[in-house]
User: Fold this.
Amino acid sequence: MACVNPDGTVTESAKALLSSILDPLTPEEISQRVGQPLFKVRSSLREMTAAELVKEESGKYAITAKGKEKI
Amino acid sequence: MEDTQEAQEKQVPTIPRLGEPAPQFEAVTTHGPLRLEDFKGSWLILFSHPADFTPVCTTEFIGFAQIHDQLREMNCELLGLSIDSVYSHIAWARNVEEKLGQKITFPIIADLNKEVATKYGMVMPGESKTETSRCVFVMDDKQILRAMIYYPLSTGRNMDEILRLIQALQTTDKYGVATPANWRPGEKVIVPPPNTQEMAAERVKDSGFECKDWYFCKKDLE
Assistant:
């Protein structure tokens, strides 16, 4: 896991990503907003979707209630 | 048992082919699990090195890290690989920064099961059965394999040539031209040769080109 630590906390880059998607954004928009490479954003979103910290709808990603507890 | 061993020995190793889609993979890296498809939309240099904590590889890693910003300006990412663990990669990257002052900013694949190395033909058994050779695979933003370079274990790669290669490929895509030997950005490019007699006759009359003959014309880019 690259974003979620074994104790359930998230990394600083994951917090920055989560904080950027209070409103739904595409991975490209997130990449621009947080200044992380697009490949890293895509990988992080995949991991955080599996951890239910993020949800995807029509290609846009938004933070979940569980995700908000992490930031 | 003998049949299986014989069959394994007869297996012909394959390498990817230029102009075809790059083999997809998912791998453990120093930046977490990454899929090749994560890089879609940007150019990518996938390169292998023989082993962490070895001198030639260390000079190459510093070289790659030093051109990383220039590559990113060209919408090109870097992805390293060797048959080492992710912990070894992390320790080596930290060591390079601590002892040699160079931060390693790109992800490195920990290909312990040789899955990616096998797909890309990175292991040359004549050199080493346990290490990847110094391979470079250039993929465009659609993940088509555009160039391959193979260097032996003994010889470090030339970062200028890797930069020049990306510049040349992107120039070809943008302007529909080819680039001559030793070409550098700003120099004249090659106009693709005509395919018919009529086009050849028209080509030699075209004052917009610098032609040595009908098949050999250069021009400046705008």
About this structure: The first strand of chain B starts at residue 26 and ends at 29.
